[in-house]
Design goal:
The structure is a single chain. This protein is mainly α. The protein has one domain (9-251). Helix content is 79%, strand content 0%. It has 12 helices and no strands. Its main location: membrane. Keywords: Cell membrane, Membrane, Transmembrane, Transmembrane helix, Transport. It comes from Pleomorphomonas diazotrophica. Pfam families: TauE. The chain crosses the membrane at residues 12-37, 49-66, 78-97, 103-121, 133-150, 156-177, 189-208, 228-247.
């Protein structure tokens, strides 16, 4: 259960700081953690360790949100989207486990950058949710989640702009991602991604993530949503730049 041999104290410190910042974003906005965490963490420990780490610590620290979300959510709509994730998640995990790690890192950078543009554009789907489209969004989100844990923005853009009440939208998002997390955990287990090095990595990063979640939830009542949104998007952009393989020498 030892840490990766090339993980120096400096890179471990950067990993923990990144995890804390990712938790801040998640605690405030409900998403964005993986968009911040994955580009940097993939550069530090590789995508096949980074993806399981953020999956595990997020699953453990957010499980308390499930009961309330289950009561409030449109469970039929969540189930329809989960059908797509059942196809997308295994496909994403296959890519993560079979492609070259450097290729995966560039793909993560590209996906995060594209989703950042989507978030910056402010685009939302304003139509009524339709089952075929809902399944398609679930497939796309599941693909991104399985490969790189960045499946949030497609779901956010699809559900947030519709005519569904805000409380139900939030509950749908929380419940869907808990289902997606369960699917991903099973597929990561099947794909052999749960290795012993994850134990110390999760133990070291989980407290920082939990503290970030708490701090982010407190900031929600202090900072304006517009201000924090700008900060969050700036941090995602910074993570994309820092995580570029071309800058590896600066991170180690």
């Amino acid at each position: 259960m030892s840490l990766p041999a090339d993980l120096t104290p400096a890179t471990l410190t950067l990993l923990v700081i990144t995890t804390f910042v990712a938790g801040l974003a998640r605690g405030f906005s409900g998403f964005g953690a993986a968009l911040i965490f994955m580009p940097v963490a993939s550069a530090l420990i590789g995508p096949r360790l980074a993806a399981p780490v953020i999956l595990i610590i997020d699953a453990v620290t957010t499980v308390g949100l499930v009961p309330d979300a289950f009561r409030r959510a449109d469970r039929r709509e969540v189930a329809v989207m989960a059908l797509g994730a059942c196809v997308g998640v295994p496909t994403g995990v296959y890519l993560l486990t079979h492609l070259d790690p450097l290729t995966i890192r560039w793909a993560i950078i590209g996906i995060c950058a594209a989703l950042l543009v989507l978030l910056l554009s402010g685009w939302r789907y304003h139509g009524k949710p339709k089952p075929p489209l809902t399944v398609g969004v679930g497939l796309l989100s599941g693909l991104f989640s399985g490969a790189s844990q960045v499946g949030g923005p497609p779901v956010i853009a699809y559900w947030l702009g519709g005519a569904i009440p805000a409380g139900i939208v939030r509950a749908n998002i929380v419940l869907y991602f808990e289902v997606s997390t369960a699917l991903t955990l099973l597929n990561y287990l099947w794909g052999g991604l749960f290795v012993s090095a994850l134990v110390p990595l999760c133990l070291m990063t989980a407290p920082a993530y939990g503290l970030g979640l708490w701090g982010g939830s407190r900031l929600f009542g202090i900072a304006s949503e517009a201000t924090f949104r700008r900060i969050c998007l700036s941090l995602i952009a910074l993570a994309v730049v820092i995580g570029l393989p071309l800058l590896d020498g600066m991170l180690r």
